[in-house]
Structures are given as structure tokens and as C-alpha cells.
Amino acid sequence: MQLPHTLSTPDYQLQYRPDLQLLILRWLRPLSLPDMQASCRQLLALALECQCAHWLLDGRREGPLNLPVTQWLTEEFFPEAVRSLAPHPLFLAALRSPARLQQLSSDTTVAPAVHRALAPEQPYHTAVFLTEAEALAWLTAQPH
């Protein structure tokens, strides 16, 4: 079954950009863990279909950082995506709001999990950005 290259739901928008060879997932509101998992399953399915391992993850409208979601992404989903997309390395550009970045310095519950997710020893490459232009520039500069 071929997936559409653009998918919109009330919770998220998913788009493959063949011109840039990247996927964009925009969360449109705060999501529960099951809803986040559903959006990520769609992302991985489209990534496999398009053989695309360069992702822009736009969480600017997602609300505060959420510990269970962060742990699931770091411990389960991103490692699964790395295995599934091998031998292509996974590159993640994370768009964040200023409020979410501030939360990293003030919320001792979620900050360690986020720092672990961004650590260089992870099996994927990631960087955090405040603007889409910076995120796209970083992603398109990564090897394909």
C-alpha cells in the first residue's frame, strides 16, 4: 500500500519533501502518548516507503515537554527507526518553542531525559532549533 506523501489529521501534519529529501512531522497540539505513538508510526512508515532518514520534527505547538513521551521516543521509537532505516543514518532536526527550551533549565523531572535524548552517543544524530530555516539548513547539509 502506497502512503500519501502528505497526511493531515487534527493532531499532526506529515509531509515528504522529495525536493529536499526530508520528512516533516508537525504536531499541532499536545498529544497523549498513544496519539504520539500513532503519529510516529505514520512517520516511520512513510520514511521506509521513501527511504528517507532526514526528519524535521516540529514540536513548537506541542506544549510542555512530557516525560513519558520523551522516554518512549528515546528508548523505543528512535532506536527502532535507526534499525529500520539502516544502513542510512537517522538525522533529526527538532524545532522547539522558547518555552520548551526554558523548561529544560527549570524542570528537573524532564530535563535529564531530554539531555539523554540529545546526547551524542545516541544511535541517531540530532540538533534543536528555534527556527525552521536553521533546521532545514542543518538537515540539508547532512549526508544522504
Automatic annotation (TrEMBL):
Superkingdom as given in the UniProt entry: Bacteria
Name of the protein described by the UniProt record: STAS/SEC14 domain-containing protein
Species this protein is from: Hymenobacter lutimineralis
Lineage: Bacteria, Pseudomonadati, Bacteroidota, Cytophagia, Cytophagales
